[in-house]
């Protein structure tokens, strides 16, 4: 039986969330001011996140929260409150890359799905199975994979698989790059890549 894929769209603020939902997205992903790789958009306050979730759920759509940066020790201390706020807002899943963030999500919001971010760099069925065994519901596969490689992962692992079909393609593996941080003080691993590998 043909399974219709979910169309997932970014939403940098409430206005864009509404546009994405109204124009057919099945789900959106968004960020709070901290912990998300989407640092350029305005992002959501906890109150706006609640409003966005209400709007999406009223139309049968889902909201996933990106918590896919690699937190510092100081930031890790603030994770529990952010996770609890997101759970209270009613998000449908957390998109994570860091194992500590994953563990915190399981501890403080055990009923909310965990999706492994493309930043995790999952390139094979063994890694996808490992993510499943750790409690992830979905993996966002590495953006470098070919269609044949994606198919092999899907066939050999029990986890839901998500792939990028549009967006920036980094020269480094799934965006794990320090070039922007070294050259301009803006880390791609913290959602602030200046794109120095793509000259004008």
Topology, pairings included?
Blueprint: E1 8-10, H1 14-22, E2 27-30, H2 46-58, E3 62-67, H3 73-76, H4 79-89, E4 93-96, H5 99-108, E5 113-116, H6 125-133, E6 138-140, H7 147-156, E7 160-162, H8 179-184
Parallel strand pairs: 1-2, 2-3, 3-4, 4-5, 5-6, 6-7
Describe the structure.
Helix 2 packs parallel to helix 4, helix 4 packs across helix 5 and helix 6 packs across helix 7. Helix content is about 35%, strand content about 15%. By secondary structure, the protein is of the alpha/beta class. The protein is built from 8 helices and 7 strands. The radius of gyration is 16 Å and the shape is globular.
In short:
The chain has helices at residues 14-22, 46-58, 73-76, 79-89, 99-108, 125-133, 147-156, 179-184, and strands spanning 8-10, 27-30, 62-67, 93-96, 113-116, 138-140, 160-162. Helix 4 crosses helix 5 (99-108) and helix 6 crosses helix 7. The mean pLDDT is 87.
């Amino acid at each position: 039986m043909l399974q219709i894929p979910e169309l997932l769209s970014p939403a940098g603020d409430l206005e864009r969330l509404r546009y994405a939902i109204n124009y057919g997205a099945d789900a959106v992903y968004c960020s709070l001011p901290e912990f998300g790789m989407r640092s350029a958009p305005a992002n959501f306050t906890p109150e706006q996140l609640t409003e966005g979730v209400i709007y999406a759920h009223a139309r049968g759509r889902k909201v996933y929260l990106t918590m896919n940066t690699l937190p510092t020790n100081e930031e890790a201390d603030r994770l529990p409150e952010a996770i609890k706020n997101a759970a209270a807002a009613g998000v449908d899943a957390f998109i994570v890359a860091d194992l500590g963030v994953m563990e915190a999500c399981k501890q403080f919001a055990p009923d909310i799905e965990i999706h492994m971010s493309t930043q995790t760099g999952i390139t094979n069925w063994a890694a996808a199975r490992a993510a499943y065994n750790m409690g992830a519901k979905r993996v966002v596969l590495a953006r470098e994979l070919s269609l044949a490689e994606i198919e092999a992962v899907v066939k050999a692992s029990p986890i839901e698989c998500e792939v990028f079909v549009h967006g920036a393609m980094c020269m480094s593996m799934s965006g794990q790059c320090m070039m922007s941080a070294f050259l301009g003080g803006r880390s791609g691993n913290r959602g602030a890549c200046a794109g120095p590998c793509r000259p004008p």
